[in-house]
Each structure stands twice: as structure tokens, then as C-alpha cells.
């Protein structure tokens, strides 16, 4: 029996991953390397839908790859590559775009959300067709399962529809991917506004933990996190979002279940909890940062790793595309 194939991507749109990216996505990727045939991709083509700076994109693509390695992805145990290095992604995206209804694409809520403020007039067609490129990413690798957050569920549903549509019109070609929705327990909230998810687009810059920041900066942000009224340390997302978020972070980093932590903090104050969360974050982030910076010192080795990943990805992608083209009469 071959191992189930998984595909997942992350955008190189920030200088550093934040704690939410790691606990909500990257850590799961690391854990799936052995039992799955995993394809992990820095999706740079997805990062240009809203305008970008080329030098920054190049830098952030490398920094993203270095961080994935620093987090524990092993190029011998998974296929790690950069999306734009494998031209088949854009080739298949065009074909799938011709199978996607305009109305169907118009129903994607992320596009609506992202254009809500500025209006659709100034949005790019690339932002509009982003989910079609994502479908190409997934379907090219005959993916069995896609580890994604809840926010990507609708896009994944489109990928499934496109696979089924192609298969029924032109003959069985694509595997239909299953969602593998990552547990909501791994969702990390903003330290200053713990009702909003931690995000690089957060309105309060001190609300996020960037993993490449100086450890003392991160520790300070944890110590300044918003807590809730009252003094009890209990898990209650509704009434104690700040404390609940800190408990979630501590639980994720120490692998101690939340109820066990709640017991351990009975009768103790927020200060103790914050200090322990800060220690746990620094204990993880300091070596992560060191490893990332060391990898970035040697861009040639990094390029080699990514070139090998792209080569391996391309053999799978090219085979799928050949079959697709054959089915379509090219
Ligand atoms: P951002 O929201 O900062 O723009 P992305 O959308 O680029 O982050 O997310 C990259 C990956 O990290 C996705 O798989 C996403 O589900 C995950 N992720 C992002 N923010 C969080 C969070 N606060 N908690 C858990 N997972 C998150
Ligand atoms: Na996002």
C-alpha cells in the first residue's frame, strides 16, 4: 500500500511566519512527513495577486523555505518546492479555468471578503481566479488529502468539483481530494484582540508573535497580552478569550492538555501563566530562529534543496498534465 498523498502550500507574504502559522499549519506538516507522501509548496504565484515587490518576494520565498526546514521539514522525507519552479501549475490552472463557471467563481467568499473595502473594480483577475490555481496545485499531484484551515474549505470544495467535472466529461484523470480540516484547537488568536485570529494583517502589531523576532521581543509581547477581567485561570473562549488563548498556546507548545494546565494553575495568577507562556514560546522560537538564520547564511544549499524538490514535483506534475492534455485533444 502506498502512503496517502498530501499537498499543502503556504504563501511567502511576510518576512517571518507567526506563531499561528506554525501551530495551525506548519507543525502539522512536519508531523505528516512519514505516514504520508507529502508535497509542500511555497506558493509564490499566489503571492502576487494583490501587487508585490520582486526583491521582497525573492527574499520571502527563501525565508519561507528556510523556516519550513527549520521547523522540521526534511527534504529526504517530503517534497519541498517553490510553486513557480514547476510551470505545470499555471498550465493546469488555465485549463481548469475553462471548466470553472464565472458564477461559481463569483461565489467564493474569500474574494468577496478581500474586495469588500476597495470594491471589485480595482481587484486583479488573478485574485479572482486564485481558487482555480489552488485547484491546479492540488490536482496536479493526485492528492488524497489536503490539510487546510476552515477558511479554505470552500476553495477545496471547488477543487473537488473541478476534479469530478473533468473526470466525468473527459474520463477519469484526477483523484478527488478529501479535506483534512485542521483542528480548531490549533487556532491562535491575536494577543491584543483575542477575538480575532493572529494574522500578519493584524491591526495591532504587538498582537502577533513573529517567530524570527528577537526572543525578548516575543516574551515582552506575551507579558503584555490582554487578559480578561477576574483572576481565575480557566478555559472559556466566550468570556475569557485572552486567558484561553494563552492556555491554547501553552498547551500546544508543551503538549500538556488544557484541563491539566487549568488544574495546575488553580489559585495562581495571570502573571505566572504569562511568564510560563513566554518561556515556552522562547524555548521554541530561539532555536527555530537560529536554525533559520543559519540556513539563510548559505543560500546556495537552500537553492539546491529547492531545485531537487522542484525536480521531484515536476515528474509527478508533468505526468498528470500529459494525461490531461491527451484527454483534451492537445
Ligand atoms: P495570515 O492569516 O497571517 O495571512 P495565512 O493565511 O498566510 O496567514 O496562513 C498560512 C497558514 O497558517 C494557513 O494554513 C492558515 O490556516 C494558518 N494560520 C494562519 N493564521 C493562523 C492562526 N491564527 N491560527 C492557526 N492557524 C493559522
Ligand atoms: Na489568510
In short:
The protein is mainly alpha-helical and 330 residues long. It has helices at 19-31, 54-71, 88-97, 102-106, 109-115, 125-140, 153-170, 215-223, 241-254, 258-264, 270-296, 299-328, and strands spanning 5-10, 37-42, 79-82, 145-148, 178-181.
Written description of the protein model:
The protein has 330 residues and is mainly α. The protein folds into 2 domains: 5-185 and 298-328, 3-Layer(aba) Sandwich (Rossmann fold), CATH 3.40.50; 215-293, Tyrosyl-Transfer RNA Synthetase. 53% of the residues lie in helices and 7% in strands. It contains 12 helices and 5 strands. The chain has helices spanning 19-31, 54-71, 88-97, 102-106, 109-115, 125-140, 153-170, 215-223, 241-254, 258-264, 270-296, 299-328; strands at 5-10, 37-42, 79-82, 145-148, 178-181. Strands 1-2-3 form a 3-stranded parallel sheet. The longest helix has 30 residues, at 299-328. The radius of gyration is 21 Å and the shape is globular. The model has no long low-confidence stretch (mean pLDDT 95). The structure holds adenosine-5'-diphosphate and sodium ion. Residues 10-11, 20-21, 23-25, 149, 186-188, 197-201 line the site of adenosine-5'-diphosphate. Adenosine-5'-diphosphate (ADP) binds next to helix 1. Homodimer. Catalyzes the attachment of tryptophan to tRNA(Trp).
Key features of this structure:
330 residues, mainly alpha, Rossmann fold, Tyrosyl-Transfer RNA Synthetase, 2 domains, 3-stranded parallel sheet, two-stranded parallel sheet, 12 helices, 5 strands, binds adenosine-5'-diphosphate, binds sodium ion
